[in-house]
Amino acid sequence: VQLGAVRFAQTSGPAGAAAPHACGPSALGLCAAAAAAGAVAAKAAASGRRKAAVARRAGSSWAKGRNLVGTNTRDNSNEPPKDKKISILGSTGSIGTQTLDICRQHAGLFKPVALAAGKNVKLLLEQVKEFQPDMIACDESVFEQLKAGVAALGISGYNPELLSGQPGQIAVACYKDAKTVVTGIVGCAGLIPTIEAIKAGKDIALANKETLIAGGPVIAPMFEEYGVSMLPVDSEHSAIFQCLQGIPKGGVKKIILTGSGGTFRDLSIEEMKAMDPDELRKRSTTHPNWDMGAKITVDSSTMMNKGLEVIEAHWLYGVDYDQIEVVIHPQSIVHSAIECQDTAVLMQTGWPDMRLPILYALSHPARVPADLPNPRDGRNFDDWWKGEGTDGKMTFKKPDLEKYPCIALAYKAGRRGGTMPCILSAANEQAVELLLNKTIDFLEIPGILEAVMEKAEAENKVLLTPNLDDIVEADRWARDAANVVVQARKKQAA
After folding, report:
1. In this structure, which long-range contacts are made by residues 368-371, counting pairs with CB atoms below 8 Å and at least 24 apart in sequence?
2. Count of CB atoms within 10 A of residue 179's CB?
3. Which residue among 37, 244, 317, 343 is buried most deeply as judged by most CB within 10 Å?
4. How many CB atoms are closer than 10 A to CB 325?
5. Burial 131-160 (b: 16+ CB within 10 A, else e)
6. What is the pLDDT, as a whole number, of residue 72?
7. What is the largest CA-CA distance in the chain?
8. Which tens digit of pLDDT belongs to each residue from 115-174?
9. Do residues 358 and 182 lie in contact, with contact meaning Cβ atoms separated by under 8 Å?
10. How confident is the model at residue 221 (pLDDT cuts 50, 70, 90)?
């Protein structure tokens, strides 16, 4: 396993002409050499594009994953960024609002210059009034409301560019002044804007799991081709990234992803089957430790979120699936760990709070002084260390795969490779939507996903070396297939 990493710098030239700098140990082919002059940089970039094109054609060389994370291991300064300009995809969602909270707390370090949201115009306008970004995008259905709302703000001399739909998301992702794009759009909808941001030479602060899960075979070569970095915002992958700092290439034996076990962690599968389906549905949208959106909270209840993180880890850190382990940790204090070759286990700990991984992704490699107490009760760790009641205690156990079959399905999809992870992810998105609108029950989700995977194999829908169009089509097919499976099951049960 090669777990060294590098960070790439942009040039002012065209996309793809970026020159790597401050390179640490080679990251599985993401850095060929440190370029010292423009001519060398251009030559290196051209070589990178050729290698990436060959890799996409061959397919197999990228199938094992690549270490996509930039660590800038030679930079030992703790100097924080100054007025770093960022774009946010999904500004009114959980990740987006917490990113803006970080911008608010650290005024002068980060400046949001472009925001893309969905239909929550009321909150978007509050964000616009406070941060006055240069570019704003929303869902097409509420575009007129956005225009009227911005005009009604009456901010003298403020004339932002207003856009809508996917073109608007892409424009925000590619906004010329932004250095980093925070991808907080839920699901595969974030894939296309992320790809366009990479082409535009933007560093990616990745909060969207599906970008790599669905698009890994397409996106992985692009980081070499366009010379940009990807830093994880997901708490587990941020934890792994932090643990890897200073670890030499080949020094890691295993990646250990921790998960709380979700709202049903203290119930047996028999007890869950005996519960009222409506109560199961209601409880699946609540979490004992984290405050998150509905989709990711349901994924935590099925532990599909952990299965998807396994696939994400494969792409982020270039590890084989046999070297990725899932462990249940109910307290959500340890956010993940790595086991080194010498058996040392390094863990990253902190409150269940997304603001820390967001801050680290935006400020890396600096450790910015911050005040981030427990978001649920306002306490600091000085109080938790006292060990009163449930404080100061951490427990771990292996997951029950009968209770959480989605974990095994994710491993199976990841090992199959190609478009299968995309098919699983899209089918899961559709199944969660059907759960939330009360079309299916909670315990039906794993069976629906397994049936979609079987249907994909039977209909030869799994392509091992997909291009972007193949990924988009696989996503569409899987959603339709999930609906077909649900209707067939309902007809059979009638």
Report:
1. 368/80, 368/106, 368/109, 370/105, 370/106, 371/105
2. 17
3. 317
4. 15
5. bbbbbbbbbeebbebbeebbeeeeeeeeeb
6. 41
7. 71
8. 999 999 999 999 999 999 999 999 999 999 999 999 999 999 999 999 999 999 999 999
9. yes
10. confident
Report the DSSP beta bridge partners of residue 115: 88, 136
Instruction: Transcribe 74-138 into DSSP letters.
Output: T----PPPSSEEEEEESTTSHHHHHHHHHHHHTTTTEEEEEEE-SS-HHHHHHHHHHH--SEEEE
**Integer Cα distance of 164 and 147 in angstroms:** 10
Structure confidence at residue 449 (pLDDT) = 98
Q: 3-class SS at 164?
A: strand
- pLDDT by residue (tens digit) across 32-61? 333 333 343 344 445 544 544 444 444 433
Which amino acid is present at 110?
A: F
289 — pLDDT class (breaks 50, 70, 90):
low
CA distance 357 to 480: 35
What is the reported pLDDT for 205?
Answer: 96
User: Which region among 165-169, 173-177, 182-186 has the lowest average model confidence (pLDDT)?
Assistant: 182-186
What SS3 state is found at 263?
coil
Q: CB–CB of 197/179 below 8 Å?
A: no
Q: What tokens does 398 get?
A: 């292996």
137 vs 132: CA distance, rounded Å? 13
- Select from 266, 439, 290 the least CA-distant residue to 350: 290
Asked whether the predicted pLDDT for residue 29 surpasses 90, the reply is no
Number of Cβ within a 10 Å radius of residue 293:
15
- Both tokens of residue 244? 């890897």
Within 13 A of 267's CA, how many CA atoms are on the CB side?
Answer: 16
| Residue in this structure with the two tokens 């599909």, named with its chain if needed | 304
Q: Is the pTM of this model over 0.70?
A: yes
Residues linked to residue 324 through DSSP beta bridges, in sequence order: 255
| Three-state DSSP class for residue 355 | helix
Position 287 pLDDT exceeds 90 = no
Joined together, the tokens standing for residue 307 give 């299965």
Amino acid at 90: G
Tokens (6 digits) for 11 = 């040039």
Both tokens assigned to 152: 């009604």
Provide the residue type at 54 as one letter: V
**Of 191, 147, 203, whose CA–CA distance to 18 is shortest?**
203
Angle between helices 420-436 and 405-416 (to 10 degrees): 150
Cα–Cα distance between 308 and 412 in angstroms, integer?
Answer: 11
